[in-house]
Amino acid sequence: MSNFRIAVDIGGTFVDAVAFNTQTDDIRLAKALTTPEEPSRGVLNAVESLGVDMADVSIIVHGTTLGLNAIIERRGAKTGLITNKGFRDIFEIGRGNLPDYEMYNLSYQPPAPLIPRRFIGEVAGRLNTYGEELIPLDEKGLIETARGLIEAGELKSLAVSFLYSFLDPAHEQKAKALLREHFPDVVISAASDIVREHREYERSCTAVLEAYIRPIFERYLDQLQTELAERGFAGTFLTMRSSGGAMTAEVAKSSPLHSVLSGPAGGIVGASHLAQTLKRDFVLTLDTGGTSVDACVIKNGAPDVIHETMLDIYPALIPVYDIRCIGAGGGSIAWTDTGLLKVGPKSAGSVPGPIAYNRGGTEPTTTDAAAVLGFLHPSSFEGTSITLDAEGAAKGIEDRLGNTLKLSAIEGASGIFRVIAAQTVGALRQITVERGLDPKDFTIVGFGGAGPLVATLVAHEMEISEVIIPQFPSVFSAWGMMSSDIMTDVSRTFIAELTDDSLKQAFDLFDALGAEAKDLLTAQGMPEEKQQLHRRLDMRYVGQEHTLSVALTDTMSTKDLSDAFHKLHLERYGHQIDESLEIVNLRVGGVGLLDKPRMAQLDKRVTPGTVADPVSERDAYCFVKNAMTRFGIYRRQKLSSGHVIKGPAIIDEGTCSTVVYSGQTVSVDDYGCLVIRTAQS
Amino acid sequence: MIDGPTLEIIRKYLLSATEEMRRTLIRTAFNPVIYEVFDFGISVYNKELQLMADAPGLATFLGANDYAIKKLYDYIGEENFDDGDIIIMNYPYWNSAHAADVTLAAPVFMPGADRPFAYTCIRAHWLDLGAKDPGYVLDSTDMHQEGLIMPGLKVVKAGKADREIIDLIRFNSRMPRNVLGDLEAQIAATRTGQARLIAIREKFGGEVFDKAVRQIMDYGEEVTRRNLAKLPEGTWEAGDFIDDDGVGSGPLAVHVKVTHENGRFIADFSESADATRGPVNVPVGLTQTLGKVALKCLTSPHEASNAGSFRPLEVITRPGSIFHAEYPSATYTQWSAIGSSELIFKALAKAIPERLIASSGGDILGFMMVGKHHRTKRMFALSNNEGVGWGASAKHDGLNATNHITSTVVRNTPVEVLEANSSMFIESMGLTQDSGGAGKHRGGLGQYRRIRFEGDGEFLSITKKSESRPWGLAGGHDTNPSGIYIFPDTDRAKRVGTYRVTVAKDDIIETRSGGGGGYGDPATREPQKVLDDVLDGYVSEQAARDTFKVVVNNGVLDLAATEKLRADIA
User: Fold this and answer.
1) b/e per residue, A589-605, with b = 16+ CB within 10 A?
2) Predicted TM-score (pTM) of this structure
3) Mind telling me how many Å the CA of A570 is from chain B's nearest CA?
4) Which residues on B lie below 8 Å from A373 (Cβ)?
């Protein structure tokens, strides 16, 4: 019997696990503490708490930021780099810039490099900008150089990155093969295996980052798989990817870089699934955790994927969801600066935590504000071990903020919420406006521990008329991971003016890329009939640098493609230009379709429009009336499909609370989602 | 009084508005100098023309819009602004920049209002406006050789683009496609900003908005004053030299007298040289910016700027001097300003060396090639700024090969982009060993690059600090300045700074950027750090022994020999 699917997501504080029974559509949740010194233990603890017989589990999907943490904390393998003769310092010089926020900081000091210069070696061999070989690879020199580095640094891992390997990877591939042959104990990562795009520094970093985390990631997955097998698990183990989709453990071990941002990706997959099921064309996700908000645009059920991201101080050319992260979450600390109230980016974390949790926290946080405003109440945490000290929170806010700013506890607390909302609004505006979209057309989907707490206020501020809070919002990311397909991405830089000829060449290249993608899917056990390929072209006006990505179908002509590009440019930038177009990158996304859990419908139903009964009432702060007012209090577990609640109301579910203001109305849909709408004025 | 939360919210919204403008500009611009080099400045003003917020661009554009917007306002006259107008301007003495920097300013009206409540301002570098030479002008002798000059024209009148002005620009540019694309991008960014400012003011109401903006500026002032108060009071002077003016005069003396007293921070540049014939004269608005950048680095590097941030600042210039250009002085090569950006720090170093960094490479070492591509036969102009070594401080070594302190968020041009879009082939590039000024803390290393040309064209190099050495602090050593080596190992070989030369296939040019000055006596640097530097190749064993007095043989530290060597000199 293979009745269960499990998703497990390691966060900063907790490991979230979700089990889905494919027969009954039932969902079970479990949490365990994160165990940074031995991450697999926390994962196993969470999985065991689900109380599912591991022999009954067909698939486990795993999201982890282990790779990212190793990079940030410099706990990866001892790594070296081999590059072209004469270009040793590409990795160190980089693009020569400081991070934007350090622009005027003349004492800026970057964190220690992943590879000190002494472990970077040069080898003769050079291609030109047309991919033509000018100098052959010095194979003998390669081995000598590598040996020197490996011995001097006791290196466990070696990255190889050569100029123009995106045009012709032959030198890199030859080097990789030779190095594997001569140094079988050292992990070798060639840039061309990960990315085939131009720009040598970014490509080198991508190879270095991968080489740096590969040995530890491999060890971690091996251990986890062994332990799961010992517990009877015989199904498929998948690792979540940063751009949605999953990959088998075997692929993850050789391409661990694709996992680095897999945690937040789960929530995006879940929200996309939700957007498709509920038929919402414009969705903004608001994933608010303890320290930050992750926000993403999902248009027509599909989130944007970008192909470059920053990991620590290093760029990585890997596909990731286009998520904007800002430091403003439930644990963010509020402080004053010369008459202004500021919130974040410092967070109280889980230790010492907010004042209201009585674990030694002394600095007021968003959570404390929620306690003072009546959004959180001791009864909100029914069934958990958390106690809530609202008075302590009020006193903390008065002492730390109220006295300086001449605000009451309530004014201070509402101020914290308004500032958090403003910061969130700024991020949401940027990601919609830069796509040429109007935020007012969007539905906000709020999740994460604090998402349901702030989503309705953010919607109010942005004049967004609909908010949806899915079931189990605090473990929504893990839930989303279960909706993943197997995915793979293959790309190639091909710079050419768009003509009938070049498009024909592009189609030919796409055939080759498509075959590559299919091989990768087949290797992950996906049968032919479950495979889908999506082709996209990154294009731009001749003379421009930035590209827009256009979906390509078999029948498209040069004119169709150029019309599609002009239209997209007009949408995105408000103008189009009478200029010829250029193809830059070809991308194939391969999808191996997996059976997905249906979004479970609620068993409990009432006649649509039935007004739900509150379990109690209490005073809380309404941001529409800007005053304390009487809120109805509801237990989410007691609600049925069809129920309607008029704000002001608070819906508690133990792990989080949804706040609904005056003029907002909640209806519980077939899937148990809280659909909150603002009456149109 | 507006309450603390509302102040912070409006402040954040204003910053978000400029950020939306910035994103629109970057993503729609045609010209890599905008989207890669961030050669732009974006700001929004209230109706009193005080800076409300700005977005990160080029540091030397910080507050350059402040002067330009006032000049524009006076020129057009407030009563002549109509809703939907966008004004274009590049008159150097008003625009605080050379003629290639084009500013678009626009009044912002509430719906139905007859007077603007705010202004947006976006300046950006354009590739060509018909100056005497393509690419960059290094030897103009008056403004009229520097391109089409626009004093403040309504390129968009009440929402409608003026075809005649646009055609005038089109016919005056060697690269009209790029230039007009950038104009479109600036217009798009302007409209983004206008819409946001209107929405923010509508949300909070005019009265709250106006009051909050004033309070936010008071906040900016307070932050500056609070940190300024930590600096000692007094008067200090510093002088330096700019190589030449591009047409034969030089070196040119630059000088600043810095006074900090009674909460005022005064930078007086009056004793600098008279304006010169060549294009290195600095418009006064840009000189004011030098003061703003220095004050910001000293007091509030992580704070957003507004008009309040600079209230304690006074910049004094002498009209007709190199730092206060008057018509028709040539102003194209603004490296004189870049090379003077550390002058204020150099003066302050006499009082507080422990809080500053040593000199960082002198100025920006830029190069450019212009020509017809050897294979595609398309016209190209492609440039790059080399990183320089940054100065060391009492706490840390200097950064290696990082963009100059006036352009810290600018990125260099990748080898694969340079080679694909020009006739330059890069034979090698990297850090220059021993180029960091020695010290207890070592200055950062400069970088070298060897370029072989694959086709004919013109090569331009720019640095105005190839003759004066980046200085160290507190006993730290100075180091070699930037230099360009034309046609090395031939009878045409020559070391130059700013230069324009015709190149042919297989010619070679090498660039070598300046390092950073050191901090403290190099003989007190921890031997282990010197060893690390040797192992990483930053410092040679020879220099370790001669300068740092640390003995390293074949990568092994000889501590006994080091102690002896250091004792001998003590």
Assistant:
1) bbbbebeebebbebeee
2) 0.92
3) 11
4) none
Residue B159 in contact with partner chain A when CB distance is under 8 A: no
Please indicate if any CB of chain A lies within 8 Å of the CB of B402.
yes
**Shared domain check, A80 and A66:** no
Query: B442 at the A interface (CB within 8 A)?
Result: no
Structural domain includes residue A134: yes
CB distance A340–B396 less than 8 Å? no
Judging by DSSP bridges, how do beta strands B252-261 and A187-190 pair with one another? Answer: unpaired
Q: Does A501 share its domain with A571?
A: yes
How near does any CA of chain B get to the CA of A288, in Å?
19
- CB proximity list for A574: less than 8 A, separation 6 or greater: A436, B188, B191
CB–CB contact B188 A117 (8 Å): no
Kindly determine whether residue A430 and residue B20, on different chains, have CB atoms separated by under 8 Å: yes
Question: Which band of pLDDT confidence, cut at 50, 70 and 90, is reported for residue B1?
Answer: confident
User: Does residue A570 sit in the same domain as residue A500?
Assistant: yes
Q: Which of A98, A199, A423 sits opposite B408 (nearest CB)?
A: A98
pLDDT digits (tens, 9 = 90+) for B219-255: 999 999 999 999 999 999 999 999 999 999 989 999 9
Q: Residues of B85-95 as b/e, b for ≥16 C-beta within 10 angstroms?
A: bbbbbbbbbbb
Place of tokens 């393509």: B134
Please check whether residue B51 is in contact with residue B66, taking contact to mean a CB–CB distance below 8 angstroms: yes
What pLDDT is attached to residue B380?
A: 87
The number of domains in chain A is: 4
Q: Please report the ipTM that was assigned to this predicted complex.
A: 0.94
3-state SS assignment for residue A539: strand
Domain finish residue from A592, A622, A642:
A592
Among A430-434, B15-19, B66-70, B439-443, which stretch is predicted with the lowest mean pLDDT? A430-434
Domain that holds residue A185: 75-210
Query: Distance from A414 to chain B by nearest Cα, in Å?
Result: 9
Domain holding A541: CATH number? 3.30.1490
Query: B2: which chain A residues are within 8 Å (Cβ-Cβ)?
Result: none
Contact (CB, 8 A) for B352 and B360: no
**Domain range annotation of chain B:** 4-222, 353-520, 526-570
Report the residue of chain A nearest B345, measured CA to CA: A106
Pick the closest to residue A302 from A276, A323, A264, A267 (CA basis): A276
The reply to whether A227 falls in a domain is yes
Contact: B222, A128; criterion CB under 8 Å: no
Residues of B in contact with A577 (CB under 8 A): 181, 184
What number of helices (H) and strands (E) belong to chain B?
14, 22
Low-confidence ranges of chain A (pLDDT < 50): 681
Give the whole-angstrom CA distance, residue A610 versus residue A605: 10
Same domain for A573 and A509, yes or no, is: yes
The pLDDT value recorded for residue A681 is 47
Q: Report the chain A residue with the minimal C-alpha distance to residue B392.
A: A107
Q: Are residues A101 and A193 in the same domain?
A: yes
What is the rounded CA–CA span in Å between residue B570 and residue B567? 5
B390 touches A: beta carbon within 8 Å:
yes
The CATH number assigned to the domain holding A157 equals 3.40.1360
Distances (CA, A) of A656 to A13, A471, A474: 16, 11, 7
8 Å CB contact of A338 and B226: yes
Q: What is the CATH number of the domain that holds A65?
A: 3.30.420.40
Does residue A625 belong to the interface with chain B, where contact is any CB pair within 8 Å? no
d(CA A363, CA A393): 9
DSSP sequence for A482-517: TTPPEEEEEEEEEEEE--HHHHHHHHHHHHHHHHHH
Which of B416, B417, B451, B541 to mutate: most A Cβ within 10 Å?
B416
Domain-embedded: residue A579: yes
Query: Which residues of chain B lie closer than 8 angstroms to A495, CB-CB?
Result: 420
A493 and A366 housed in the same domain:
no
Asked if residue A158 and residue A252 are part of one domain, the reply reads no
